[in-house]
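Recall that a protein's primary structure is simply its ordered list of amino acids. Everything else, from secondary elements to tertiary packing, is in principle encoded there. The following example makes that idea concrete.
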Amino acid sequence: MNFAQAVSLVASILCTIAPGLQVLHILRTRSVAGLSVLTCVALVMGNCLAILIGVQYSLGLTLAIMILSLIIQSVMLHLVSPRAALATGAAVIAAIAGTTLLAPGLAADILTTRYHEQVAFLWGIIAATTFIPQVLVTRRTRQTKDLSWLTVITFAVGFTLWTTFAVMVRNWSLMLWCGILTLSVYELVRLKLAEKGARAVM
């Protein structure tokens, strides 16, 4: 395992732990009012593409962790909105089946690095906007109690490492999108700190 693969492995572990921590938080508080359904959907969709990137780069153990992360994120989405979880699952299955049946040659090429920039670009569009709905919900409601503090911190570190990985493998579109994604997560960290400071003043 080279250093870039090690970085991706640690990033994948952190990005798997983060939604798991959020699931535990939801089960403990029984509240999802402050969570964005769109952010949860984007996490699942983005992780599906991240798994494809893992296949393209032959990331091995990291790929297995990404699959585990997808399962956990799907559970989180189901807890937040069962209807959105069902629709998202149907869309993913339809995309895989459609590509495999209608363009088997393309489906095979997508599994190699031939289309790695295109896949990373598509992932990036989803990833870069993933936490924007959550930021908007949090700013509107002015409360972050439904958003796990540990989840936000773990995501921040994990996506920082994914940005580092993108730099190491010189995938420029992945680097751009990871950078934007990381900044949006750090905005959630700032909002959590701001609310904590406001409570301390009161």
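The CA atoms of residues 45 and 167 lie 23 Å apart. The two ends are 51 Å apart (CA to CA).
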